[in-house]
Design a protein that fits this description.
Blueprint: H1 9-23, E1 27-35, E2 38-48, E3 51-57, H2 63-69
Antiparallel strand pairs: 1-2, 2-3
């Protein structure tokens, strides 16, 4: 199911961030992870020389960027 920038800009931005991080070698542990304290859009992990690295991502979409992408 394709997500477009106009119908769901937040999800569209999350998928853009996810794809960018995957291309840079990060592996997704969870999307839209939530607990009683809040939500994280992405939880990513990557192994390196110094061990595993954990990246917690909260995506914020700018209306201007979303509108330009929807053209």
């Amino acid at each position: 199911c394709a997500v477009d920038a106009k119908s769901d800009p937040g999800r569209w931005a999350e998928l853009r961030a996810l794809n960018l991080l995957k291309r840079r070698g990060w592996r997704c542990l969870a999307e839209r992870w939530s607990c009683r304290y809040g939500e994280l859009d992405l939880m990513m992990v990557k192994s390196g020389r110094s061990g595993l690295r954990l990246l917690l991502v909260e995506v914020k979409a700018s209306v201007d960027v979303v509108l330009m992408a929807g053209e």
